[in-house]
Amino acid sequence: MEVEVKLRLPDSSSHQKLSSLLTPFHTKTLIQENVFFDGSNSELSSNLAVLRLRFITNNENPNPHCVVSLKSKPVISHGISRAQELEEPLDPTLGRACIAEPWRLLSVTSSAIVQIAKEEFRVSGLVCLGGFRNVRSVYEWRGLKLEVDETNYDFGTCYEVECETDEPERDKKLIEMLLEENGIGFSYSHLSKFAVFRSRKLPP
Hints:
Blueprint: E1 2-9, H1 12-21, E2 26-39, E3 49-58, E4 65-77, E5 80-90, H2 92-100, H3 103-106, H4 112-119, E6 126-141, E7 144-153, E8 156-164, H5 168-181, E9 187-188, H6 193-199
Antiparallel strand pairs: 1-5, 1-8, 1-9, 2-3, 2-6, 3-4, 4-5, 6-7, 7-8
């Protein structure tokens, strides 16, 4: 189970203000390209699941690496997200080939995630749904790993703060205090990035 605090920032100026405030705690910046897949007959989405390829580069290593993940049963409430998530590394060259020819992903017999998609979700074919780009700045602040995101959809840009945690209520209060004490507006995220992507409109 992945548990995250998710707080939405209202605009680019709030994002910039928070980024400047956290500069002393910056550890890395990740460029993430996210591409999503569903079963040919919606076997994943109909069961509240999604298959994702994420291509990642960072400011220290420009050579991309790729991660395949299966996320399911997402619940977001009061700025706290809970979801089942499995992740595995994937050769980035193969990952790129899977975007053009999704069937290639199902042929990766060494992948436990692919086997789960086939056996538990009865996926026999895949379709590529497209995706979006995310710029993630990572900060180590007061024992927390804060991820400040600028997510670029083809219909607009969202800004968000995320923090994976075992103590979501406690850590949400810490992050809220940081934002409130520095006059940075925020609201609770009610949708995952994937849900925003599928809706094709920015959250109100």
